[in-house]
Amino acid sequence: MKRYLGRRLIGIVLAGMLIVENCITTQAAEFPESETEIQSETFEETQDMQSTEYADDVSDNEVQTEEPELEEVSTEQSEEWLAIQPEEQAAVQLEAPTDLHITGRTENSITLQWVTVKESSDYKVYRSLEENTGYELLAEIHTDSNKGAYTDSTCGADKQYYYKVAAELKLDDGTLIQSPDSNIVRCDIYIKSITLDKTKIELEKGKQAQLSAAIEPEAVENVVSVTWTSDNEKVATVENGLVTAISTGKTQITASAGGLKASCEVSVGVTVTDIQLSKEYIELFPEDDSEKITITTLPAEAANEDITWQIDGDQIVDCELENNVLTVTSKGILGETTIILQSGNIVAKLAVNVVLDKDDIDSAIIPVNKVQIQAELSDDDDVNGIVNLKMGDNTASSTNLSVKILPQNATNQNIIWTSSDNSIVSVTDQGVLTAVSIGEATVTALADNGVSDSIDVIVLAADREFKLIDTSVTLYSNATGVKGSNTYQVRMDRSDIDCNYRSSDVQIARVDSKGTVTALNPGTATITAYDPISGCYGTMTVIVKKLIESVNVPVDTMEVVKGSTVQLFFDVLPRDVSKDVLTTLSFETDKKAPITIDKNWTKNRTSGSVKFTADKVGETRLSIKSKYLDAGGYTKTITEKIIQIKIVAPNSKSLAASIRLSGETAIKSGAQTVLKPIVKDTDGVELDSTKLSIGYISSDENIATVDQDGTVTAIKGGRVTITAYVMDGSNKKATFTINVRQRPEKISFEREIYGIAKEQGKTARVTIKPVFSPANTDAGYKGVVWKIADVRNADGISVSDEFSNYFIINNSGVVTAQKNAVEGMQAIVTCTSNAYGEKEGNVSGSAVVKIQPKQVSSIKFNQTNMQVVGLTEHELAFSTTYAKGFTSAQYSAYSSDTAVAEIISAENGIVKIIAHKYGTVTITLCADNMVTVTGKVTIYPFERGNIQAQSANYVLQQPKYNGADKAKLQFVDAKTRKNVVASDLFTYQSSNPDIVYVDANGIAYVNPQANDKITSRNNTVTITATLKDDPDKRKATTKVTVCQTEQIERLEVSYFNKENRKWETLTNSGKTFIYVPKQKIILKITAYGADNIEIFKPSVSFASSDNSVATMAYSNIQNLREDVGNENVNVNVNVYVDVSVKKYGKFSVGISAKDQKGTKRSIAFNVCAGEPILTSDGLGTINCNAESVEVGGKDRIASDKVFTILPSDGTEIIKVSAKSTEIKVVRNRKTETVKASFTVQEVGNNQYRLMIDTSKLRDEKNGMYAINGTYPVTLNVTRSPISEEETDGEEFVTKTIQTSFKIVNQLPKIGNASVSINSYIKGDAAQIPINTTEKIENVTIAAGTNAEKLYELYSSNGKWYIKIKDDQFANWKNISRSERLQVKLKGYANPVSMLVNVSTKEVKPVVKQLTVPTVQLKHGGTVYTTLTDGKGNVWTDYTIVNKEPDKAVFNVDLQGEKTQITFPDPDMKIKGQGAAYTQKVLVKKADWRAPVEVSISVKAYNGTSVPVVKFANSTVYINRRIGEAYAETAVNNSMNNVELQQGAWKILDTCTYKVTENKKTTVHLCSEAFQTTYKDGKLQIALKENAQIPKGTYRLVMTGLWDEKNDEGLKQPLKTAQLSVVIKDVDPVINVKLSGKIDLVKRSSSAIQGTVTVNNVNESISKVQLANTGSNQHFTDDFYCVSKDNTFKIYARSKAVLYNKAVKGGIEVTLSDGTVLPVKEISFTPTQSNPKINNIDTQIIYKSAETQTSDYNLNKSIEKGAHISRIIAESVPSGMKLQDSNGHLFVTLSDKTLKAGKYQIKVNIYFKGAAPVTGNQLGRQTTKTITVEVRE
User: What pLDDT, in 10s, does the model give residues 1179-1193?
Assistant: First the structure.
């Protein structure tokens, strides 16, 4: 017998024995009555069992389990054992159980497990406290499993136990056999956890600290020993938890017990005594600006250097502290705050100011002197200095450029990379070149101050040209059932190129990435295959048509008379087949057919007819087939119609003699009518028309079509003629004219909302006029049915009563707002056409009539006839005259033709439109749904006025010389010739496309086949460019001339480097040379034609831009060979030129090819003197009284300002020093001369400071001081060389500058001051007005007076205060005396003395009662009032007593921040309800000299009345659409000393609602759906869970409880109050109002202000932020937002490239409960002002001065908020050098021979943030003239 045991087996009845085992938490057991014997083994291994209950249906053999994880075990002794005889059993020895081990340990239990023996099921468990003795029987276990288990629940956690197990076997004779004992297992004392009382300790060296270890459970704490260890005993040791600090460092102290550990970190070191910050004040921009502050703790070896920080003030920044560097980041909020940093008890403060603009424009500037492009030239770049790229070559189509900037420490090292032709080569901001198309371009690297370098880039062709095999294919969009008929695979002549594909119109045909074209709709599309590697492309035309799917004829069989000619009519389906699709029809007959078909058959759009002649008697089949040619060139048949024709002999058939049609002569569009034919024979007998072959045809199938059964279908309004033919050979026909009357297809209104302004209690009217579409709607079908479809209240909830109570409408569309209609109500008006029957559906429109105040008197457009340019966004300005009392309005606008222009927005005086096509449109503007105005807008492709070609003639090479030559034709406005018209706005026409043709992008090419056709007569072609869709139909012409001889394409210029004896190629930026008298520069000119082939003996011209600096002449060949070596001369290929330098200065070499193309080069040269420039006049002033600093082991005093030295062009300053000079001093009242040495301190960015030994300036012991005066000094400037010729073998070059400095011996002066202290208040302080611009370090009281005992000085936020010391307060009431103070100023060695007149005056503080409270005597008699200082500040922490307590009616006491007023007698007889009682009280604070008398008043009521409550909001809203489940309102109590009972309020049964389910309606009380809670003055109304209440308005009548008990001991109810609760299911509506503007050139001081409101929500707005939208994914990259609650400001980011055109973006609103609402789209248009620039003062440069540089700081001349980006001179006088940087323009006299006089320089000033304009990325400039006066 076998059984199964579950892991949680509840019970089993087996063989008269019930076994319950392995039950861990069984509480009870009950057994069937039939079970009478329960054995003890049943409950073994069952813990905490109380009872077990069995179900009645459990049989003896069933087992109930919860988790049937079963194992099969034997329930009886094995068969082998039973086979042993009893005498043999007695001799059996049992084996010992094995593998006894512990599987679980808790505080009160130990679980054992062992491996059982085969012969036994009974085991004994023994336990002892010692391993080898004292074991006692613990339990006897019965188990049939191969593993035994037992849990000891009688153990304790504080003891160590030993266990062993033995098996037992009972023989048949009753003898018990016990096995040897199992192995012994030990269970240690139970420890749950160990913890230390400290996890971190900071100690000074030699100090100690005690650690304590806590062990759980507590019972074992005294029996377990704890082991203490230190990870580093050199830092700290530990003994029994006592930690001793040994040396500086950190270590871990660990306590161990029972295998568990706990640690404490110990830091040993020196205590921090000071915290120093790298800055104590910083300014940040709001847009994610950050700054790092370095924190230094002193002394350096301090161990407890952990720094904590907290923000003391507004949370406007985020902080991150890492490795003693604090990073402070702004959060978009303006303001000031303080960051407190702390280590131990030491504190440091960092002041932070988040500002819109940081004024750094006058910071030190080091301009860039030289930019040098460095290119990694490939092996193919055979010409030095030129980069060659190859189209289609992955390794050669791109390369990286870098720059070298000198000096290396230039302030602004930003580089702008530009390409002269982005269609040939593009360049990234990082200088990465990429080939775009074949050609040549110049790449320039431009520094901020205009210094640049350029390099030529040639893009060569790659061998990746291809051709498309097919230039045109025809596909059929509805021929999907035939292979290849609606798809086509693009084919080309090579297979090694992976092209990109695109379709010109994806609505007609689309193409996938593999070139598979799919036809979609009829039309024509161009498919382009483009090779992205080489730029090669090919195009083909795809014509998409629709096939005929079926052919319909009137009859399937025909009988005609021999000799007659019959016209067979038919029509085709679908009706929208392509116009020429009928040409695919063919008419076929049997061979030798008795008829002849006329090939010239008649074709309409979807119908036609064919004639045939009956030649002889017989029968045949006429087959009408629709065939087409598929993309593979195969003819396919798509459909076929067969007609059986029988030819009979004459006179055997009666022919028709006449036919006429009858039917409706007028039908509605979209309707059908059937024409009835009446046919008679020659005898006048009417024939059966149903048996005749009659064909029909329509004169205009766009108006109506006719089927071959005579069914006419009206398409649109108009007149159409239907012709019916009798197809029996008689050729009789009849016509019938039908007038199709157009029905409306759409009804709309000129605006969506019509506003009505009405007075309360009166009526008002508005007329609504429908607009019918299409425009030719028949007047007879403009009849409509008007209806008021809905009336809604101001909350958008439908009213429950009759609509006519509020609005009515008559048959003319006049809506009358009735007297009951109130402001905010609206009517939904529908207008339904009566031109349609019930089964035809209907056409209707709707509008809203809304009652609102009239806020606008009139509106008008600033221009009624506006002209704009471009298919982009435009702004139409309008002005509004508001009605009295109003300053704002809502606007809407409408376009008369949305295909021309659509409305974007109408707000803030601007209507924004988006133009889609050129033409004229009428814009209607409506203000507040009432007042309208119209304006006409004409959209042009380009500014009005004539246009002309930028060049009258473009020159191209013949294909045989240059097959890739092309010219970009450009056209400009004829007035300024600066505004370029975009190429894609034109269509181009060539007068001779066989010679020159122009593509759609305005690029002219020579026809590759034109080589042999070009002559002197036809080599000039006229190109006409016409503006597409231009309302003025403007056009312009230019000419293209094809050269007949080979032309120079590129000029290369090299100079001879005498050092390395090699020619070096020059870029356009040229080279810088040091001036040497009689200097000669030798140039080599090489000309290249097409494909980079040298042209022999080229004809070129050359000239110098300034002959006063350098002249040019052809080189003497003989002298040339001597100068450069014969091997470096090739006169057959190159032209050689000598450049003779006369003086230093700048000039350029211009070289032009003397052919038709006239290719030019201009190369800049700079010949400089190499002198560094001192930008200031002198080196500043050294004050003998200044504070000295230690430099180089000596005390030195520094000058008051730094000076800047600009290095020579292309050089870097290495070192600046100063020579010693003599100064005059007074020593012992005698004047003498001493030699003073200097130190020049470098402060960075080419700025320096002069320092002198303090001992040379002052010596107080010897009475020595320096004499005031100006002293000369010589600066030595060591710089890098300009060229190797300059060094003479030295590494650096040293130049000198003669200048001066000043010495003064004085202290700043500080005037006297007066202060007054209020001696009534202890601790009152007065601010000391210290009049100085210097920074104050400390203020002390002068020694030698008793003032130090009387006063205390202290500083707060940079200001100094004086007060009477607390211990002198009682003695000094009135003071009037003068005190001398010593003011220590930063930078000065000695303090400055000042007098302060101090006076005192007793002024009592003002104490007033804020409000007079009321008290209910019967209900507590207690009320509270507040005391203030009369300015809104509340007094706290005071004492208050009645002045005359014996006469007091009420008692007073301070409770928190309020005074408690208590009437002790609730039954006091009062003078009347609300009678006022006033008492004098005494108020005193601890620091007041005496109490202040105040009058306290209170109004008393006897308390018999019931409080009246009113709700702050009479109506509340719950919007379930957004998950709102409750609303709340404040409760105003008429008795302010009566507390309302907290908790639920009762909803009375006056409110009900209905619920309909399964067509059954039940009525419910509102209390079933709502629940209320009153708490802290607010009542919350919540929807109960699963409440199925419909939306609507519910008026809840409620009452609460007040006071704890009434006189009878019962809680009293309030008077009932009514609250309306509106349940909504609507989306939240976000409303955004914008004002202000963003000025691109004043970004930090201009902003868009916005206010957000959200309808249909209860929560307030907690956050507003910007968000990207689908139309603008870069909105948050360009703008940032500063918000507070529901208001915000939008600023433009300083680095965003923006334009003054409309911008769209989004606003994301977060509610106070964290709900984020969908993004609301907004739009605005940044503006760009023209900053005002004040007159710039004339500056003088003296030729004899130490420096010849003037600094024009234009930042001081422009209006606030604007910043200068560039200053570029239009022309520079010879002899002057200009550099600009950060708004400064440095003008340097570079030629001292320049005549004295005034020189005017015209400069273009560009502003940061300005919108780029065509041809100038810097934006629109402002031109000013500066004057430089040169004097001797």
Answer: 889 988 888 888 877
Mean pLDDT of 1806-1830: 83
Are the CB atoms for 1277 and 1216 separated by under 8 Å?
yes
Q: Which class for 25: exposed (0-12), middle (13-18), buried (19 or more C-beta within 10 A)? A: exposed
Q: What token pair was written down for 580?
A: 């020429």
Mean pLDDT over all residues of the chain? 83
The span from the CA of 1357 to the CA of 1354, in Å, is: 10
pLDDT per residue over 234-275, tens digit each?
889 999 999 998 887 889 999 998 778 899 998 887 677 778
Residue 1209 is predicted with a pLDDT of 63
Q: Which of 1729, 1778, 1724, 1733 is nearest to 1754 (CA)?
A: 1733
1487/1369 Cα distance (integer angstroms): 10
Which has the closest alpha carbon to 1719: 1676, 1781, 1763?
1676
CA neighbor of 843 nearest in space, from 892, 782, 886, 904 = 782
pTM to 2 decimals? Answer: 0.41
Per-residue pLDDT band at 2 (split at 50, 70, 90)? very low
CA distances from 81 to 119, 121, 166, 176 (A): 7, 13, 20, 15
CA distances from 750 to 934, 1248, 1378 (A): 12, 74, 83
Q: What is the pLDDT of residue 481?
A: 55
Q: What is the pLDDT of residue 1421?
A: 82
**Structure tokens of 630?**
């598929």
> What does residue 689 show for φ and ψ, rounded to 5 degrees?
-65, -25
CB 1035 within 8 A of CB 1027: yes
Rounded distance, CA 1047 to CA 962, Å?
A: 9
Tokens of 534: 């080489």
The contacts of residue 471 (CB under 8 Å, 6+ apart) are 540, 541
Rounded CA-CA distance 1758/1359 in Å is: 34
- 1328: Cβ–Cβ under 8 A, 6 or more apart, which residues? 1313, 1315, 1339, 1353, 1360, 1361, 1362, 1381, 1396
For 1197, the token pair is: 């005093």
Which of these, 278, 277, 294, 289, lies nearest to 354 by C-alpha position?
289
Selected residue with higher pLDDT from 5 and 1096: 1096
Question: Which residue has 């507004």 as its token pair?
Answer: 314
Two tokens at 327?
A: 């990073």
- Structure-block tokens of residue 1225: 């001093």
* pLDDT at site 327: 92
Q: What is the 3-state secondary structure (H, E, C) of 1726-1749?
A: CECCCCCECCCCCEEEECCCCCCE
Looking only at the bridges linking them, the beta strands covering 704-706 and 711-714 are antiparallel
Is residue 383 predicted with pLDDT exceeding 70? Answer: no
Higher pLDDT, 1082 or 20: 1082
Look up residue 1624 and give its amino acid: K
Contact 1607, 1513 (CB under 8 A): no
Cα–Cα distances in Å, from 550 out to 472, 481, 582?
Answer: 27, 14, 12
Hey, which of 44-53, 279-288, 1569-1578 has the most confident mean pLDDT? 1569-1578
Task: Give ∠ CA 465-468-474 in degrees, rounded to 5.
Answer: 165
pLDDT digits (tens, 9 = 90+) for 1677-1690: 888 888 888 899 89
Say yes or no to pLDDT of 1805 above 60: yes
Q: Which residues contact 444 (CB under 8 A, 6 or more apart)?
A: 417, 418, 419, 420, 452, 453, 454
What DSSP designation does 56 have? Answer: T
Look at residues 1594, 1612, 1592, 1595 and name the one whose alpha carbon lies nearest to residue 1603. Answer: 1612
Give the 3-state secondary structure of 804-858: HHCEEECCCCEEEECCCCCCCCEEEEEEEECCCCHHHCCCEEEEEEEECCCCEEE
Distance of CA 688 to the CA centre of its chain: 79
Q: Given CA atoms 811, 812, 813, 815 in this order, what sign does their dihedral have?
A: negative
